[in-house]
Design a protein that fits this description.
Elements: E1 3-12, E2 15-25, E3 30-34, H1 41-48, E4 59-62, E5 65-66, H2 72-76, E6 79-82, H3 94-99, H4 114-126, H5 142-155, E7 160-164, H6 172-186, E8 191-196, H7 199-205, E9 208-213, E10 216-221, H8 223-226, H9 229-236, E11 240-246, E12 249-254, H10 255-262
Parallel strand pairs: 3-8, 3-9, 6-7, 7-8
Antiparallel strand pairs: 1-2, 1-4, 4-5, 9-10, 11-12
Bound molecules: adenosine-5'-triphosphate.
Pfam family, one: ABC_tran
Keywords: ATP-binding, Nucleotide-binding, Transport
Protein name: ABC transporter related protein
């Protein structure tokens, strides 16, 4: 098993926000974490990155080893956090942002080598944005910035990527582009764990869905098994119809809005 959470309980001061959470993730899976605001998704992702630690009795293991026993630099070469695209304040070139992924591999103040540059350019090429390498990071679009951050994570050498709501702020085309890239990379053995507020995204690309409510996992399975009317009602308190459009392709439509539009 690649990543395993065993009986994780976590509290901020006296407030427990994760309750005895357990699941495991295999190499090459795309896992979507769904749940309402405040249910504990970001907290769980921070535990998977080793930024928070579970209460005694619980553990997160990467390739069988407890995260707490792996040093930070080694962990950074295995699991990368891909932030939401952000407004950078300094106009680094795209290639420089991607090269920063090599930092965990270098002694302090060492210069980047030819190999570092080759890896950074290969990652940009794989994501079809090599043409942007010399552009200032502050002047490319949000979708391009998100792809550059994925390239940086790849350059880090990591094969497991953790995203917190990666589609936030991306236009529809870039959301689809991002999902397509995740599917391509997962077929090469990259693993993705992402929180999302869009059940449709999980239906389109997730191999597996973890549903969280009030700090508990209430469903864990394939998107077909978990994205059901009942589970969505339980998570969001809204009636949602799930339609099959073509083989293996389903979409969510809010029942009331769908009914309202039929009357016009
Ligand atoms: N640093 C903190 N100190 C205290 N409480 C926190 C802290 N961070 C988060 N919380 C609380 O923990 C709970 C879970 O928060 P978390 O950010 O993990 O939820 P989330 O599912 O990611 O939410 P969202 O979908 O709104 O981003 C919330 O009630 C939140 O208010």
């Amino acid at each position: 098993m690649l990543l395993q959470a065993d009986n994780i309980t976590f509290s901020y001061s006296t407030r427990t926000v994760l309750h005895d959470v357990s699941f495991s993730i295999r190499k090459g899976e795309i896992v979507s974490l769904l749940g309402p605001n405040g249910c504990g998704k970001t907290t769980l992702l921070k535990l998977l990155l080793g930024l928070h630690h579970p209460k005694e009795g619980g553990a997160v293991r990467f390739e069988g080893k407890k995260l707490s026993s792996i040093n930070r630099k080694t962990l950074a070469r295995s699991i990368a956090y891909v932030p939401q695209f952000h407004r950078a304040s300094f106009a680094y070139r795209v290639i420089d942002v991607v090269l920063m992924g090599r930092m965990p591999h270098k002694p302090f103040f060492a210069r980047f080598s030819r190999d570092d540059l080759r890896m950074a350019r290969e990652a940009l090429e794989k994501l079809s944005i090599l043409h942007l390498e010399d552009r200032p990071y502050t002047e490319i679009s949000g979708g391009e910035r998100q792809l550059a951050l994925i390239a940086r994570a790849m350059t880090q050498g990591a094969h497991t990527f953790i995203f917190d709501e990666p589609a936030n702020g991306l236009d529809y085309g870039n959301q689809i582009r991002l999902l397509e890239e995740l599917v391509n990379l997962s077929s090469e053995g990259y693993t993705f764990i992402k929180s999302t507020h869009f059940p449709d995204h999980a239906l389109w690309v997730a191999d597996r869905v973890l549903m969280m409510k009030e700090g508990n996992i209430i469903a864990n399975g394939s998107s077909d098994e978990t994205i059901t009317r009942e589970n969505l009602y339980s998570l969001y308190g809204r009636e949602v119809d799930i339609h099959s459009l073509k083989e293996n392709f389903r979409v969510c439509v809010p029942s009331r809005l769908g009914a309202a539009s039929n009357t016009h």
